[in-house]
Write a structure and sequence with these properties.
Elements: H1 7-23, E1 33-65, H2 77-91, H3 97-125, E2 130-157, E3 160-166, E4 173-179
Length: about 180
Amino acid sequence: MTKPQNKPLSLLLSSTLLAASFALPQSAAAGESFTDWATITRVEPVERRYTVRRPVEKCWMETVRVQQRNTSDGSITNELIGGILGGVVGNQFGGGSGKDAMTIAGAALGASIANDQEKLGPRQRSGGNYKEVERCETIYETEEKTERSHYRVTYRYNGHSFTTKMQSRPSDSIRVQVSVTPR
């Protein structure tokens, strides 16, 4: 027995495929892609906020006391003279063996005062040595900035809406890549 053939159905399928191949560009008929135009329906600029930190040096003048190094001349003359004068003054006080103790104490104190005065130097004896110095510190100034990052573009193609990001603002339509694949 022979199989019944369904000629009207196969004829319908053949004509549908033939019509579909004429409806699409020739290069898309075999599952390839082509370009077409889509209509822009909405364009939204998208901004990005960020903070810029910039180092800035701030300076000012400040008065500071300067410590001098030991200004001793290497001689013990000042200490000897201070000791002799201190001994003379100490000898004026006390009586008997107390007088000897006061002389020794006066000599030691006089030598010590002479040594300290020699270490101070001439300017510090009259109130100290001061000078103006520049002080600086780095601070950071901040600035808030806003810039356009991109555009969110909504477009319609073949009855469907799509959204994409674009770096520049598009006109009324954009080119789209259309891919056709049989199912």
